[in-house]
Design a protein that fits this description.
The complex is a heterodimer.
Chain A (H helix, E strand, L loop, with lengths): L11 H13 L1 E3 H8 L3 H13 L3 E8 L2 E8 L1 H18 L1
Antiparallel strand pairs in A: 1-3, 2-3
Chain B lengths: L5 H20 L3 H20 L3 H27 L6 H24 L4 H22 L3 H23 L7 H25 L2
Classes of the chains: A alpha+beta, B mainly alpha.
């Protein structure tokens, strides 16, 4: 019996953002944009979904007079990511 | 880059998850405890000129650390990850410090205090720097480098007054244990409150 995959993480961009944060813990918007090659609008929407789920925290500040958005992975997000990887292992067998 | 099998890829991802989990479990309590114990010992030694305090507080610290890591190790096993190699570096640094503290100090007495400071604290500074780099803690990297400067500058202090060297452990302990420990503890509390 295959475990159900977390629908929130089962999206290419959200999974990419979460993977980056698992690896680096914290990343700013530009870093995410550079890694994922997605549009700012799309990234913003996916960030909002992850934040609402409590998987990440979003901190908005200013850096060199420009707005700077920093994302940080939460323990809940890490657990969800781990559960997702566990479920994936079941698919591979 | 070599082509990985899906299972190998997942194993690498699991390893990264475990490293992150381990960092999230790091609450800095042991470092705060050592920072306080060494600072108190150093200050008591300086003001009372009685070095017996080291013989009381240091074994207390070792017992606390051993019990703490025993419990942490059990919890880590339950949560599916093991304590990493940095734990071994701290363990070896602790053994070196015990040997130097209890064996060499008896033989060299107060004459070699500067070198005893260096011999005892250099392995700890190395362990602190290695751990700081592993968990990518910039503040800890900076305080460890400052501690290296302090420990070598203490050789210069010897020319002015020998007694000042008694305070060197307090400064090093604040730099490599207390400040990073409090920083880790605040981070840990913030994560728990999310």
């Amino acid at each position: 019996m295959f475990k159900e995959l977390d629908p929130l993480l089962h999206s290419q961009l959200r999974l990419a953002i979460m993977s980056l944060l698992v690896s680096e813990e914290t990343a700013d918007f530009n870093r995410i944009k550079a890694v994922t090659k997605a549009t700012s609008g799309n990234i913003s929407v996916q960030i909002q979904k992850l934040e609402t789920a409590g998987y990440i925290t979003v901190n908005k500040s200013f850096k060199d007079n420009y707005p700077n958005t920093t994302l940080t992975l939460t323990p809940k997000g890490l657990s969800a990511f781990e559960a997702y990887v566990e479920a994936l292992k079941g698919y591979i067998g | 880059m070599e082509n990985l099998q899906p299972k190998e890829s997942l194993a690498i991802i699991q390893k990264i998850i475990n490293e992150r989990k381990q960092k999230y479990e790091q609450n800095g309590i042991v470092f705060i405890a050592w920072g306080i114990l060494i600072t108190i010992s150093s200050l008591v030694n300086y003001f009372t000129e009685n070095h017996q305090v080291w013989g009381i507080l240091m074994p207390l610290g070792f017992i606390f650390t051993a019990v703490y890591y025993f419990i942490q190790g059990k919890n880590a096993q339950k949560k599916g990850f093991s304590l990493d190699w940095t734990g071994w570096i701290w363990f070896i640094a602790g053994l070196c410090a015990m040997y130097i503290g209890f064996v060499l100090v008896q033989n060299f007495g107060e004459i070699g205090l500067t070198f005893i400071n260096i011999l005892i604290f250099f392995p700890f500074i190395f362990a602190a720097l290695a751990t700081a780099l592993q968990i990518k803690n910039k503040l800890w990297v900076v305080t460890s480098i400052l501690a290296i400067i302090v420990i070598f500058a203490s050789m210069v202090l010897d020319f002015f007054t020998w007694k000042m060297n008694i305070l060197v452990p307090a400064v090093v302990a604040v730099l490599i244990f207390l400040i990073p420990g409090i920083h880790l503890f605040i981070d840990y509390k913030n994560r728990k409150n999310v």
